[in-house]
Specification:
Elements (H helix, E strand, L loop, with lengths): L2 E10 L8 H10 L12 E5 L11 H4 L3 E4 L2 E4 L4 H6 L10 H5 L5 E3 L2 H4 L12 E3 L22 H4 L11 H9 L6 E5 L8 H5 L5 E3 L6 E3 L9 H5 L6 E3 L4 E3 L5 H4 L6 H5 L5 E9 L3 H5 L6 H8 L6 H9 L4 H9 L1 H8 L4 E2 L10 E4 L33 H4 L6 H8 L4 H24 L5 H4 L5 H13 L2 H4 L30 H15 L6
Parallel strand pairs: 1-14
Antiparallel strand pairs: 1-12, 2-7, 3-4, 5-6, 8-9, 10-11, 13-14
Helix pairs in contact: 18-19
């Protein structure tokens, strides 16, 4: 067992109101400079939709993430030969049109509004390209262009999450788009198995050893841009002013000062939680190699119990300090992901093992809109035999959000893991209703989804009533104690190591050479 720490996050989609306060906060702090105008390290998309950049989820088009090749992992993009053959033209990298339409990144001719020259009509600020400086450029795409399902009846048919639904189901869903849409805030997932680091030819993209934050070394970056192609979430960006790649840094200067990332701090809906997870480094490759339907459970099994004495002993042996172990024990992410099994990774089939988890939207049941709840039509009617199935196929049709759509996004097609979190959310709602309306807690509804009263109360507090220090458990960072030797600081990186696990073998030889006085490590 090799215990490592990972700063992790969860977003509660049931509470996201799409206000983009997180986006504005991130833009003002990190990407409000030349060359970064089109960068949205944090963005909020409307689903269904194709997102930003266009169709980022379609890996048949962009070749992001990892695939199984026998009992090994391989970048979907391909190996060194594939990358070298596309060195001067990369067909699997989003163009500017996929971010900001035909007109590139644009600003407006604000000088026209301040000119003292007399004109025959009201002056206007016309769109102007920031790259070519051409004026009157067309504006036909941008971040969250599909806001509140606007235009989704046109773009929605290209949403890959409809793949498991019939054409008739998809068309009906898009036709009644006002009934079904939800917001999806996205930042870099700081994955356990990052595709960007595995694909970087110069080893500039790396994973910090002490907290798992994925960064891009600006001194080593040579703008190969394969990190863009190989990241299935399309979160690295190219800065055309500096000629370097950039991405979300998880506000590590704030974290090292004991503060949460700025997008977390500014969230109006309080949908975001932040904390530490302990995981077994030796089993990461094994977890990433399981079949699609088992990926969520495999990633959960990878997370270690911070209260287990054996885990604590191994963590201390691996150099993890007491305050980080304490933070892992208080982490809301551990509870939401591992203990209560509510939060799920976004597109686990990409096999990057993301450290950002989502609580799927509750998807109100159309027959339980406040008219006849509870009733014999209700999913948790206690007259049903408790030993029977919690949800049959007829009842799946009651969800406003198509269940197959959610399973495609958060379960790699596995209905059961998504079903469990939806049912537990519904059970909590009924449990709270019984307390507030009936004056008596209905524990039977909790029994049917495998929750205790203590767990139910903990979920209510975590998702609705928690204080600042409960939502954001930021450990004290001791950067001076981090392992920052020339090789291990890179984490998983390097063009000659297309499989991210080969650096683990090199790391052993590095230490052997270093301590023996050999120069092989240089």
């Amino acid at each position: 067992m090799k215990v490592k720490t990972q700063l992790s996050m969860s977003f509660n989609l049931e509470k996201c109101i799409g206000c983009n306060t997180c986006t504005v906060a991130c833009k003002n702090v990190w990407t409000n400079r030349e060359g970064a105008e089109y960068m949205w390290w944090n963005n909020v998309e409307t689903k269904p939709g194709i997102g930003y950049p266009k169709q980022w989820e379609n890996q048949e088009l962009w070749k992001g993430g990892w695939v199984k090749q026998g009992n090994k992992l391989k970048l979907r993009y391909g190996g060194k030969a594939s990358m070298l053959s596309n060195l001067f033209f990369n067909p699997h990298m989003p163009e500017m049109a996929d971010y900001y339409g035909d007109g590139d990144v644009y600003t407006f001719t604000y000088d026209d509004l301040h000119s003292s020259e007399q004109s025959k009509q009201q002056p206007v600020g016309r769109p102007k390209s920031m790259v070519t400086e051409q004026e009157d450029v067309p504006i036909n795409w941008g971040v969250n262009w599909e806001d509140n399902a606007g235009g989704t009846h046109i773009t929605g048919k290209y949403d890959v999450n409809f793949a498991d639904m019939s054409k008739e189901e998809m068309e009906a869903t898009l036709k009644f788009r006002d009934v079904f849409y939800f917001y999806l805030p996205r930042i870099c997932n700081h994955c356990l198995n990052p595709g960007c680091a595995g694909a970087c030819p110069s080893g500039a993209a790396y994973k910090r050893e002490e907290d798992g934050i994925v960064l891009i070394d600006q001194n080593r970056c040579r703008s190969w841009r394969y990190c863009v192609s190989s990241c299935p979430y399309k979160k690295p960006y190219y800065n055309w002013a500096s000629g370097k790649m950039e991405k979300c840094i998880l506000c590590y200067p704030r974290i090292e000062s004991g503060l949460p990332p700025v997008c977390f701090h500014s969230c109006v809906g309080k949908i975001r939680s932040f904390g530490v997870l302990l995981y077994d480094m030796d089993r990461v490759e094994e977890a990433a190699l399981v079949e699609d339907e088992n990926l969520v459970e495999a990633q959960r099994d990878l997370i270690l119990d911070p209260f287990d004495s054996e885990v604590i002993e191994s963590a201390k042996r691996d150099g993890i300090s007491d305050d980080w172990i304490d933070a892992a024990q208080r982490s809301p992410i551990y509870k939401l992901v591992k203990l209560w099994e509510l939060a799920l990774p976004l597109h686990p089939e990409f096999r990057t093992l993301p450290s950002l988890f989502y609580i799927p939207p509750l998807a109100p049941i159309t027959t339980s809109a406040g008219i006849d709840t509870p009733s014999d039509k209700d999913i948790f009617n206690m007259e049903k035999p408790s030993s029977g199935p919690l949800l049959d196929l007829d009842e799946l049709d009651k969800f406003r959000v198509p269940f197959k759509y959610l399973a495609s996004m958060f379960g790699a097609g596995n209905d059961e893991v998504v079903k469990k979190t939806i049912l537990r959310q519904l059970a909590i709602r009924h449990y709270q209703r019984s307390i507030r309306v009936d004056g008596k807690p209905n524990t039977a509804v909790l029994d049917r989804v495998g929750l205790t009263e203590q767990e139910a109360d903990g979920i209510v507090r975590a998702l609705s009533l928690s204080f600042y220090n409960e939502r954001f458990v930021v450990p004290t960072t001791k950067r001076e104690a981090a392992d920052i030797s020339p090789y291990t600081e890179r984490g998983f990186a390097g063009f000659e190591h297309m499989n991210p696990w080969s650096p683990m073998k090199r790391r052993k030889s590095y230490f052997k050479s270093y301590h023996s006085g050999s120069k092989d490590y240089e």
